[in-house]
Amino acid sequence: MRYDSPPVGPSDRPSGGPPDGPSAEPSAGPSDKSSDGLSERLARFAGLVAAEAGVGKDPVNLPMIRHWCEAMGDAHPAYRGPDAVAPPTMLQAWTMGGLSGHTARSSVHDELFALLDGAGYTSVVATDCEQEYLLPLRPGDEITFETVIESVSGLKTTKLGSGHFVTTRTDVRAGGRPAGTHRFRILKYAPAARPREPEPPTMAPARPGARRPRPVVNRDNAGFWEGVAGHRLLIQRCVACSALRFPWLPGCADCGSPEWDTVEASGAGTVFSYVVMHHPPFPAFDPPYAVGLVELAEGVRIVSNVVGVPYDKVRIGMPVRLEFLRVDEELELPVFRAGGED
Question: Are 251 and 262 in contact, with CB atoms under 8 Å apart?
């Protein structure tokens, strides 16, 4: 996630120029607006200041660090006690403006979005972010920042549709010293026309064409899905420090060791948190339904459906028990039945 060019300061920001997007030339296509000068107008936004002399709404503080670590399940001792530091990945958290926003924000970002919206690129999706960490942040550090629109790409064609990638860069300082850089990239696009849905097969479930999305199986999690196929819920265990981890990862977050084996979950758990899904509708699901964050008896947590009880009866702390649900002829999933009895 490292970005190796020097931080951009107020005096050395470019005033314009061509964007440095993924390719040198914009893609041609039916929605190409280059003939009316849109690409050139978009390129002029590169280097313009979106937020200057921004001030974090709170100094770095232990309560926010604690909340972050609890949400992420990160119990590293460096983030606790009198000598605590903030997790590096909290970098953006100290610059967020909340619902009321920041007074340091300029109108440039809104003007850019209005230009793209007016050209038909009304949809938006976040694509990636990059962070560079230069200084450990400690409780009491006062945060300042500035944000620049780093680039606007030429027209690109993706599976979602044609549009422009917009990259913003935020330079974060603590006590006036560079602390890190956060780059955030989105795609503003015009959705591609969707092909007509095929007729539902004769063996379709109650809702026509309804099939659960297929899980993404790769070399890092294939063992988990092999366990599910055998009605076993497997948890990774670090060989070096014995820390358990879920979901599966290629290395240990506690000690960094790439060596691991597995332990089988007993199946007992409790509802740590949950949401009730009402929207958006999806033909493979029948809302409303409960999705729980289940804390297993082994101490790790898993997201899955809570079954065997009406969605409005699910409660935090409710005991649950693992079972395996066959959702179609190809797919079986671990779910948790309320009650927790064998």
Answer: no
